[in-house]
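Try this one yourself first.
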């Protein structure tokens, strides 16, 4: 509750906040800092409503292992949805198509299609709207493809949201497997006894060895959100596992549409190399014009590679002091 109070004492143009639900019923496709019970969700929802802010519960497991299609699983999940509805939850974010249809038919809560449904085309958007979606969070993979975004916008009447600060690899080959892993690790049992998160550490190593992947990630700079207003006026800031001060820093940057600092400070992922690279956000001005006309065939272009070599710097520690060095002088591969 303290974190929520700090968050809602900041900017007054926060439309909604979101939190994970109880993983005993439906998991999520991300890691969680905690597992709030029904009474805790009720308390935080009432506080948010008192501040004029909507509450959204994220239950975006990308794989339920078929449990939701069994009589026992269906009854348990339906009971949980009933409790969330009684609490006064405004919206529920789900990735499972079955849940989209169930929620739209049986409840008055707004149904939000998760980014983990990978809606990256007009056809997918139409499919989910027909199932009952009120809002769709578009797959960030098309954040820089304005023709695709505009086609999605024109194909549906439901609302759209754009996730602005996800730092995942562009066209990540691990994306589906990784979110399925999270869904099982952070969902109803049996709990997994895994050695480590292969996908995450592989993802880190790819960026360290090839820093241009940081530039290719489909984030949206705070200054560029105005270029997307014909698509949506609702921008989602990812990072529910971060501390409140980090979230507030992002909220201020995106509400002010201005950030003078390291772009890495705003990205939800990958946090473990945030203190390794420095990407001066102000030096990225004008890049969206290039990406809007890009055909996404990197071998024929090289723009992101050249940009990385020109502006990305690396933190180097010498005599207990941290300094910034050009990427090439550190032997970084691009």
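Now uncover the answer:
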């Amino acid at each position: 509750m303290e974190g929520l109070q700090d968050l809602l004492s900041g900017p007054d143009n926060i439309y909604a906040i979101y939190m994970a639900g109880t993983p005993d019923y439906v998991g999520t496709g991300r890691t969680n800092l905690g597992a709030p019970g029904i009474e805790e969700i009720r308390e935080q929802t009432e506080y948010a409503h008192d501040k004029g802010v909507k509450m959204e519960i994220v239950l975006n497991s990308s794989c339920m292992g078929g449990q939701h299609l069994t009589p026992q699983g269906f009854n348990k999940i339906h009971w949980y949805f009933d409790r969330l509805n009684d609490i006064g939850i405004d919206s529920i974010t789900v990735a499972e198509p079955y849940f989209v249809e169930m929620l739209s038919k049986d409840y008055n809560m707004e149904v939000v299609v998760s980014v983990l449904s990978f809606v990256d085309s007009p056809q997918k958007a139409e499919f989910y709207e027909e199932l009952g979606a009120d809002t769709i969070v578009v797959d960030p993979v098309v954040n820089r493809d304005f023709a695709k975004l505009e086609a999605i916008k024109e194909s549906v009447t439901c609302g759209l949201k754009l996730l602005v600060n996800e730092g995942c690899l562009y066209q990540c080959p691990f994306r589906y497997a990784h979110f399925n892993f999270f869904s099982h690790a952070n969902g109803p049992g049996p709990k997994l006894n895994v050695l480590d998160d292969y996908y995450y550490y592989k993802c880190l190593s790819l960026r360290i060895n090839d820093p241009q992947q940081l530039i290719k990630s489909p984030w949206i700079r705070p200054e560029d959100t105005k270029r997307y207003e014909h698509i949506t006026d609702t921008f989602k800031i990812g990072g529910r596992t971060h501390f409140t001060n980090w979230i507030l820093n992002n909220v201020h940057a995106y509400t002010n549409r201005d950030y003078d600092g390291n772009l890495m400070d705003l990205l939800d992922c990958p946090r473990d190399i945030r203190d390794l690279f420095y990407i001066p956000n102000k030096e990225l001005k004008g890049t969206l014009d290039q990406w809007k006309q890009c055909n996404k065939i990197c071998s024929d272009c090289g723009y992101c590679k050249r940009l990385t070599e020109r502006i990305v710097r690396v933190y180097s520690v010498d005599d207990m002091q941290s300094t910034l060095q050009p990427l090439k002088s550190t032997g970084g591969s691009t």
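Discussion: DSSP finds twelve helices and ten strands in the chain. The chain has a mean pLDDT of 92.
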